[in-house]
Write a sequence for this structure.
């Protein structure tokens, strides 16, 4: 009989999309979407990302930068895919569409996706990295201590992020997206707890997970505060350039932290993961069973969860276990 307290990272990750869930296992990913007619469409693709096969992809602190960029690019691609099921069928091609097709040689969609990704990254840098610096600089005539100013800048950065998270969580359309986000986490937690992947077991699993992108962003903010505190220059222009230049370092360090946190039950890692997991109570919502079904379809398209349970927890999944649904307790993570 397996140990109820055992924990093993299965290595898969995912993302919520419009009326669906994406799950990624190594280079393979699947997007499952609940179409307007109620059917579940599953699309399985391969995404290798930048510098595929390079040693840099496996180098600590460097691999995090590539993973961050890849997640942005793939994220845009799958969101566009899921949205395509709900687009107005009568929408006509515009002059801009035709112009972009001509310029890009028929790859207008890829071009627009690239432009959107670059703009999204630029906005994120502007709002969460540069804006706090400019706001804190207004206090320079009142606060002479540079260390204190850096701490204030960090506090503003945290405040802006919290306002952003709370603000979008109140939007009606985002609520369903967050439900699918919860379904994604529940599926992964179900597998990593050693439970058969049934709707019943998924619904009783936690919607909070240590490898979540929300937790990653929290680590990014705190790592940036620490680095900006210890690495400083006097020239205002150099300060701005320094903040931009350190972004890859921040992403690399944050990735290693969340990687460790997601693969260990270490007490210290649990403590530093707590703020991000607490914030996930805003960025994930409890899904319904139909959402859990979609998430399960996405997992099963790219991951052999029965083989994983056999190899990791040492038991075969039988029909009686599937019918009974396994254990009785839920496993919401304490924070």
């Amino acid at each position: 009989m397996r140990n109820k307290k055992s924990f093993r990272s299965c290595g898969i990750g995912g993302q919520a999309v419009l009326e669906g869930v994406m799950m990624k296992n190594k280079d393979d990913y699947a997007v499952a979407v609940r179409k307007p007619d109620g059917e579940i469409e599953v699309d399985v693709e391969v995404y290798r990302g930048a510098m595929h096969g390079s040693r840099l992809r496996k180098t600590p602190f460097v691999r995090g930068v590539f993973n961050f960029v890849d997640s942005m690019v793939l994220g845009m691609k799958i969101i566009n895919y899921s949205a395509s099921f709900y687009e107005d069928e009568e929408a006509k091609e515009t002059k801009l569409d035709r112009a972009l097709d001509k310029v890009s040689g028929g790859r207008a969609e890829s071009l627009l996706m690239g432009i959107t990704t670059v703009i999204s990254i630029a906005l994120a840098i502007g709002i969460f990295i540069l804006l706090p610096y400019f706001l804190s600089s207004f206090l320079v005539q009142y606060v002479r201590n540079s260390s204190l100013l850096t701490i204030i800048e960090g506090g503003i950065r945290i405040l802006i992020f919290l306002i952003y998270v709370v603000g979008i969580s109140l939007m009606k359309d985002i609520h369903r997206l967050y439900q699918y986000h919860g379904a994604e986490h529940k599926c992964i937690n179900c597998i990593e707890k050693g439970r058969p992947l049934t709707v019943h077991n998924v619904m009783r699993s936690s919607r909070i997970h240590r490898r979540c992108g929300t937790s990653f962003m929290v680590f990014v903010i705190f790592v940036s505060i620490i680095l900006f505190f210890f690495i400083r220059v006097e020239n205002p222009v150099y300060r701005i350039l320094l903040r931009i230049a350190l972004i890859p370092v921040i992403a690399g360090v944050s990735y290693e932290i969340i990687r460790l946190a997601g693969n260990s039950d270490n007490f210290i890692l649990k403590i530093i993961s707590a703020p991000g997991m607490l914030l996930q109570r805003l960025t994930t919502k409890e899904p319904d069973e139909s959402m859990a079904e979609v998430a399960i379809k996405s997992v099963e398209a790219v991951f052999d969860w029965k083989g994983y349970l056999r190899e990791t927890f040492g038991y075969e999944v039988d029909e009686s276990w599937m019918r009974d649904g396994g254990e009785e307790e839920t496993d919401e993570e304490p924070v």
